[in-house]
Every structure is written in structure tokens, then in C-alpha cells.
Amino acid sequence: MKISMIIAALVFLPVIAAARIDGGLQGPPAGNWAMVERLDRDTPVTLRLKAGDSIQGAFVALEAESVQMLVDGQERRFPRGEVAEIGRRGQANRKRNAMWGALIGFGVGFPAGYFLAPYIGDDDDMPNSEQAKGGAAFGAIWAGIGAGLGALTGGTHEVVIYRAR
């Protein structure tokens, strides 16, 4: 019973922690127009209008009731009342992705190795300590695979910096 609880914790805690750290349980900032003001001029942004249109361009300036963008070589002004959402491109964090890949890989590999060790070793009466060694070996292999996949995935992504209330 104790071992199965440890295994469940190793599998599910990294997944839950990853969702919380990555902001998966939090929404974008709602109605914070000042966040847009922090953008540097010529930052690539995506503007979504309440009418449903999506416009890509470069940020130029922010005024009290409008945002100015460079779209297809022309400066355009969009009233705040028509803007549903503004997002910018965010950078991937490869170290963080590799870490989470390793944790999740170990969380999957350890229980698999633990339960498969008696079959691989052809010993039905294998002690728990030997099964744990098998789990650690599988966990290490899968942690390496997870770290590699984590580092390779997750290129740039969009970060929402403003969402109308």
C-alpha cells in the first residue's frame, strides 16, 4: 500500500506542478491596459478585435483610448473599445522544459520499471528493494528521454498581455 502511494505521487505530482508553474490554471490579465504600454516600439503583436478579426503587426504607441500599430507598412489606430485581446510572442524556456520532461519521464519510468522488474528478471519473488532498483533504472532512462524531448519542444508561444473585461 505504501509503495503504491509513493508511485502515484511520483506520477501525478509532476503533472500537477507543471500545470501550476506553467500558468495553466491561471488566465491572462484582464483589462490591464498599462501592460500594453510596457511593450517596446516595433514589438510584434497580435491584436484580436471584438468583431473576431485577428491582426498581426508591430506595436507603435499606446494612447488612453487606442492602440497604434504598424500593419502592412501603414500605421493604424484601433480604439480600445474594439480590442478584445493583445498578445505578443514569448520565448521558450528550454531548461524548464527539459526539467519538466525529465520529471515526467522519471514519474512514468519508475513505476513501469518497478512493476516490470520481476518479469524482466524472471523472479516472481523479487524483493521490493530489487524492484526499486529496476524502477530507478527505467526512471533514469525515461528521464533522459523526457529531458531531450522537453528541450526540443515548446518553441515560441503567444503571451496574452491584455484581455478586455
Compile the SSE list and pairings.
Layout: H1 2-21, H2 33-37, E1 44-49, E2 54-63, E3 66-71, E4 74-79, E5 83-90, H3 94-120, H4 128-152, E6 157-163
Antiparallel strand pairs: 1-2, 1-5, 2-3, 3-4, 5-6
Helix pairs in contact: 1-3, 3-4
Please characterize this protein's 3D structure:
This protein is of the alpha+beta class and 165 residues long. The protein has 2 domains: 2-24 and 93-154, no CATH class; 33-90, SH3 type barrels (Roll), CATH 2.30.30.100. It has 4 helices and 6 strands, in the order ααβββββααβ. The chain has helices at 2-21, 33-37, 94-120, 128-152; strands at residues 44-49, 54-63, 66-71, 74-79, 83-90, 157-163. The chain has a 6-stranded antiparallel β-sheet. The chain is rod-shaped and about 75 Å long.
Question: Key features?
Answer:
165 residues, 4 helices, 2 domains, alpha+beta, SH3 type barrels, single chain
Short description:
With 165 residues, the chain is an alpha+beta fold. The chain is built from four helices and six strands; from the N terminus they run ααβββββααβ. The termini are far apart.
Beta-strand fraction estimate: 25-35%
Count every beta strand, where a strand is a DSSP E run of 2 or more residues: 6
Instruction: Indicate the low-confidence ranges by residue numbers.
Output: 20-26
- Taking Cα atoms only, what radius of gyration do you get, to the nearest Å? 24 Å
Quaternary status of these chains? single chain
| Total of domains | 2
Please tell me what the overall shape is.
Answer: rod-shaped
Q: How much helix is in the residues?
A: 40-55%
Termini separation (Å)?
49 Å
- In the sheet with the most strands, the strands line up as 4-3-2-1-5-6
Q: How many helices in DSSP terms?
A: 4
Average predicted local confidence, pLDDT: 81
